[in-house]
Amino acid sequence: MPSFTTFVAAIAGCSAIVNGAALPAENGLKTNALQRREVTKGSDHILSKREPVTVAILTAVGTAAATAVVNEAVQAAASFIGDIVNFDAGREAFTKQTTDAMMANNPDPARFQAAACYNQGFSVADPANIDGQSSVDFRLGVLNTDYECMYIAAPNQFFTEGDGGFINLSFTHTDRCTFDEETADLTLSNNKIVPLTIIKGAGHEHIPIPEGECAIIADFHSVKSQSSHSTPYLTTGFYRVVPGPTRYGEYDYEETKYVLKGQIDITDEATGKTHHLVAGDWAFFHVGSKAQFSTKTEGVAFYAVTRPMNDGHPNLVGREESTSKL
């Protein structure tokens, strides 16, 4: 089952507080709420009596399937809210309920990785990867505001541009997306997190040599590089880790890592599994892999990567033996 995360950001133009919460759901989905709102609210957005929330689709652009689901989600959210007196609370409930319903009834899960509702200016990196965009009029009595609700396909970026006034935003998205809590922008990755390839005890396997021979190659893994670097690279080096804060790696290149001594814990973010690697164990990180590194003691590994060199070892750079003839 895909994993969904909902971010709800309600930002006031004055003093604000921040409250983040993880809300478990019966269907196994995880909802995270990010809310920023003014500390002291006025009474301008509080009605004297309960009135029903009403919504209307003003315009809709996109495929019939996407716009139909957005319309159904908008209407269902308004029905869910019912009669209320607090306009701001209604708006926050509306955006979250709408994006949750849109993703729950996603017409193309392989393509659409996020649903958004927003009532301020915005831009996107790839307009062609927006579908079902609908302008929604949200009303409670004499109070009203407009929202843009839509599906977002990967790869893409959604940039929030509202400044001043009361902003209300909700994203519901898969784990292929990253929400920036500082800017309230959303980045959608083109690929899912790719699991690591692990072989325990690779270096301890016996390699038989045919009679009459003195050496043999024993290839055991091969991939075609998916690195986006325009120039091919092969960089080698050593990796050392000691107890301390967890280190995080996100790969846009390949890496093959062979543990020489000690112990290295590697958590594969694609599977959630932690691999306890010791001398002789081997790991391969694909383009799109994400991992966490730690150790309880110390670990040293040799690696080869398809990226340019970063910081060279001060005692090894320039140590290549001369290639000149004697």
Any overview of this molecule?
Residues 249-293 form the (S)-ureidoglycine aminohydrolase cupin domain. InterPro entries: DUF7888, RmlC-like_jellyroll, RmlC_Cupin_sf, UGlyAH_Cupin_dom. Residues 54-187 form the DUF7888 domain. Keywords: Signal. The protein is mostly beta strands and 326 residues long. The protein has two domains: 4-188, no CATH class; 197-305, Sandwich (Jelly Rolls), CATH 2.60.120.10. The protein is built from two helices and 21 strands. The protein has helices at 64-81, 87-104; strands at 4-11, 16-24, 30-38, 46-61, 83-86, 112-118, 122-124, 130-140, 143-153, 156-160, 167-174, 177-179, 186-188, 197-199, 235-241, 247-250, 255-268, 274-278, 282-285, 290-294, 299-305. A hairpin with a 2-residue loop joins strand 8 and strand 9 (143-153). The protein is elongated, with a radius of gyration of 26 Å. The relative contact order is 0.13. Residues 11-42 have low confidence and may be disordered.
